[in-house]
Specification:
The protein is an alpha+beta fold and 573 residues long. It is built from 14 helices and 21 strands. It has helices at residues 132-141, 153-157, 196-199, 271-280, 297-304, 307-310, 336-345, 348-354, 390-399, 422-433, 446-453, 475-482, 502-512, 517-532; strands at residues 12-15, 17-19, 49-53, 83-85, 96-98, 106-107, 113-117, 177-181, 184-188, 228-234, 239-244, 262-266, 288-289, 313-316, 320-326, 361-363, 406-413, 437-444, 462-468, 537-543, 545-548. Strand 8 and strand 9 form a beta hairpin. Helix 7 packs antiparallel against helix 9 and helix 8 (348-354) packs antiparallel against helix 10. The longest helix has 16 residues, at 517-532. It is globular and about 75 Å long.
């Protein structure tokens, strides 16, 4: 997952983001079989108002501009796509399933062409039918400069996509998206893409009726294809109100439960305020949740002494890795033994503690997250134990020509977060000191930090970084970081090691041809292990997400795809 600006958006994160700050793995009721919040007792029923309390506004509420895999959380209540994520707990939630389409797509022999058929009886909120022409138009409008911000895959993958300027400048559209009839759509790709069904979960695949398109103003009242319609959008998503779409037919939608009658999203709130309101859970807040605000160590300590609160904490993991990155064109990081020495010197216990403790971070020795869907294959090429191996590190430094140690600079963010901020940087500094490595910390404000670490050949020699996947598979995790053909020399470069290994590039291409996702996962795992031998990065930890729900919230589902509570499953009655 990339981060804000040219970077963003892949974090999914966390807003999905990344993912932005919204991402993570695992879930379900807090018992021996699952890891999420149990929620209120009793069978879920329709009715009531679900309130979502968030820090970040649900801005740019236009399917072309959203960067949300699987439609995100709130967006997926309004926008349906050709495929979507399986709305179940844990690993089952990493599967891609049909949404508007009858299946997850039918590839040709080499996966360069994908065909989808729409289900019968699909309608917009105004009762008009949804057609494949609307899906095609929705994708094509996302190419318009004024609607930028969404995922880049169609521009990169579709034949002619790299030159297309969007439906407003070129209403003829893309010849690589063909709609032979109202229910059939065919995509023609530049190269094999076995993971295309995952990409079809992106909101760019939501249908948009051309007659209702108002360009940049479409976000004010986008036409719903999902169970809810937008009735109010204030201050660019700061206050969003959704009510039932009377023309949504649950018979065509096996994934969204749509229990509440109304959903109100209030954003721009301080994280401490959100957690306090959810803790108290009084009045309307008893039916509230958050999709982007985590609990911190102090709050978890408080909750740990209150069993009733503990039952309302959901645990999730998103496909994310926090790591130390090297630029091997900068000395002394061009020396593999120096990189290996640093790998041995890392004290993952202190790093995990800096990240909030074992409840909020899990130590990592692999680049791929510890999830089967990614192809996770256990390895530890530079076993340092829980607290590092400074003796081994010193021995390697001597072999590298630094018998008296060396001095290096570590670049990090000044943001007070537990992933790339000062606390984690200091933990790394102290660990390397034990191995005779003096580390000078270079703290940069977040925007400058992001620009510098993704600067390509101008990036620092040694810096803290992180990466999250747009969907739960090895492709969006390994290819942007290690495919030499994706190197950008003057900004927005994610291949921090500037690795351009023909064998690695070829293997990425071969895996992309596979439409058997299980077979692909095995090969992604093997590739991760092979690349790891070069010590091009030092995996530190995978974040864990802890979030409260209100005491009236039922049917808590947290998948390994998003790592956060799925609002399409929640009931408050």
């Amino acid at each position: 997952m990339r981060q804000p600006s040219a970077i963003t958006r892949r974090l999914a994160a966390a807003a999905v983001t990344l993912a932005v700050a919204s991402g993570a793995v695992a879930c379900g009721p807090e018992d021996k079989d699952a890891k999420g919040a149990a929620g209120a007792e009793g069978a879920p029923r329709k009715g009531g108002t679900l309130r979502i309390l968030n820090s970040e506004p649900q801005s740019d509420f236009d399917p072309a501009r959203l960067y949300t895999s699987g439609g995100g959380n709130v967006p997926s209540l309004v926008f349906r796509t050709l495929t979507t994520r399986n709305r179940e707990d844990g690993a089952e939630g990493t599967k891609v399933v049909p949404d508007l389409a009858t299946d997850t797509g039918r590839p040709n022999k080499d996966a360069t062409e994908w065909t989808f058929t729409l289900k019968e009886g699909l309608k917009y909120e105004d009762g008009t039918p949804i057609t494949t022409a609307d899906v095609k138009y929705g994708i094509e409008r996302s190419f318009a400069a004024e609607l930028s911000g969404g995922a880049p895959y169609m521009r990169d993958w579709l034949v002619g996509g790299d030159a297309y300027q969007g439906s407003y400048k070129d209403p003829k559209g893309l010849a690589s998206i063909v709609t032979p009839d109202a229910r059939t759509i065919v995509f023609k790709l530049k190269k094999p893409e076995g993971e295309f069904p995952f990409v079809a979960t992106q909101t760019q695949f939501a249908p948009v009726p051309k007659a209702k398109d108002k360009g940049a103003k479409y976000e004010e009242h986008p036409v719903s294809s999902g169970p809810y319609k937008v009735v109010k959008n204030e201050n660019d998503g700061e206050h969003l109100v959704l009510e039932r779409n009377p023309n949504w037919d649950p018979k065509t939608d096996e994934e969204r439960k749509a229990y509440p009658d109304r959903v109100e999203v209030t954003s721009g709130l301080d994280a401490a305020v959100i957690n306090q309101r959810l803790t108290t859970s009084s009045g309307a807040d008893a039916a509230a949740v958050t999709t982007d605000t985590n609990l911190g160590p102090a709050e978890l300590a408080q909750i740990g002494s209150d069993k009733s609160l503990e039952k309302r904490v959901g645990t999730g993991h998103f496909g994310y890795t926090n790591y130390l990155a090297f630029n091997p064109t900068v000395k002394p990081f061009d020396n593999a033994k120096v990189r290996q020495a640093i790998s041995y010197a890392i004290n993952r216990t202190s790093v995990v503690n800096a990240a909030g403790g074992s409840a909020l971070a899990e130590p990592a020795t692999t680049f791929l997250p510890d999830q089967k869907a990614f192809g996770y294959t256990p390895y530890d090429h530079f076993p340092a134990g829980k607290s590092g191996d400074p003796a081994k590190a010193k021995a390697l430094l001597k072999e590298a020509g630094y018998p008296s140690g060396l001095s290096i600079t570590l670049t990090h963010s000044t943001a007070q977060n537990r992933e790339t901020g000062p606390d984690t940087a200091t933990a790394v500094q102290e660990a390397l000191k034990q191995a005779g490595i003096t580390v000078k910390l270079e703290g940069l404000e977040p925007n400058a930090y992001n620009e510098k670490r993704w600067a390509g050949k101008g990036s620092p020699g040694f810096f803290i970084s992180r990466w999250g996947a747009d969907w739960p598979a090895g492709g969006p995790f390994l290819a942007p970081i290690f495919d030499g053909r994706q190197i950008v020399t003057n900004g927005s470069n994610y291949n921090h090691a500037l690795l351009n290994d023909p064998a690695v590039n070829k293997e990425i291409d071969e895996i992309n041809k596979l439409t058997d996702l299980k077979a692909a996962a095995v090969r992604w795992g093997a590739l991760d292990k092979k690349i790891g031998e070069q010590a091009l990065d030092v995996p530190l930890f995978h974040p864990v997400y802890k979030r409260l729900v209100g005491k009236q919230v039922k049917n808590v589902v947290i998948s390994d795809w998003t790592g956060v509570l799925d609002v399409s499953q929640v009931a408050v009655k």
